[in-house]
Amino acid sequence: MNTIPVRQQRTLNINVLRHNPHDPESTPRMQAFEVEEADAMTLFVALNLIREEQDPSLQFDFVCRAGICGSCGMIINGRPGLACRTLTRDLPDTITLAPLPGFELIADLSVNTGKWMRGMAERLETWVHAEGLEQLDLDVMEAPMEPALAQQLYELERCIECGCCIAACGTAQMREDFAGAVGLNQITRFRLDPRDQRSDADFYQLVGDDSGVFGCMTLLGCEDMCPKDLPLATQIAFLRRRMVAT
């Protein structure tokens, strides 16, 4: 009779890059913690154990714990990922954690992705542009949409704005004004939406330069690191074709 092998319990050595930029006496440093691994433990659970039992000053973000909010993005052994979706059993005994680069550091593993995402949304005007929206009658039945197109839009809306694609992007680390895959994904979403009345020329004004679609170096880090497995490179290629034809 086949038996399921019992996994030996491990002691995890978790090294965290600590720094509080709002504290003038704080300097970047690595701090080591030890955590006893449990079955099906996620990195999120391990970090909570550290904060509850060892160091309550450790800062990191979380909301949903289900890979939906995108709050717990961080660099995990050199790669961007979500702490709540990362099982410790898939990692070695020694784990090194750092905040996502490219965003304003709040403290330790906490970064202000919300500020970056809002700035991107305002700059790229990521909302439906149509005449008469200010007099929109909410009691009127919405115009029907082809199921295939609705599914296409839904696929692009699965982005949780976690920032992993920005952290993995070489261009984003060199250019603060680069829209990144998350911004270009949003532009594609509204380009496909039949309710948006903007033309390709209008979208070109938003992303038709090196801070937009032509700044991408096609390193594919965004798609490789996306925790939702979005086809981000495909969206960038689609936009490039549209912008070139404009």
Kindly summarize this structure in a few lines.
Belongs to the succinate dehydrogenase/fumarate reductase iron-sulfur protein family. With 246 residues, this protein is of the alpha+beta class.
Helices and strands in order:
Layout: E1 11-18, E2 29-36, H1 43-53, E3 73-76, E4 79-82, E5 94-98, E6 105-107, E7 110-111, H2 113-124, H3 147-157, H4 164-167, H5 170-174, H6 180-192, H7 200-207, H8 221-225, H9 232-245
Parallel strand pairs: 1-5
Antiparallel strand pairs: 1-2, 3-4, 3-5, 6-7
Helix pairs in contact: 3-6, 6-9
Structural description of this entry:
- There is one protein chain.
- The strands form 2 sheets. This protein has a 5-stranded mixed sheet. A two-stranded antiparallel sheet has the order 6-7.
- α3 (147-157) runs antiparallel to α6 (180-192).
- The model has no long low-confidence stretch (mean pLDDT 92).
- The chain contains 9 helices and 7 strands.
- The chain has 2 domains: 11-111, Roll (Ubiquitin-like (UB roll)); 125-129 and 145-245, Alpha-helical ferredoxin (Fumarate Reductase Iron-sulfur Protein, Chain B, domain 2).
- It has 246 residues and is of the alpha+beta class.
- Helices cover 34% and strands 14% of the residues.
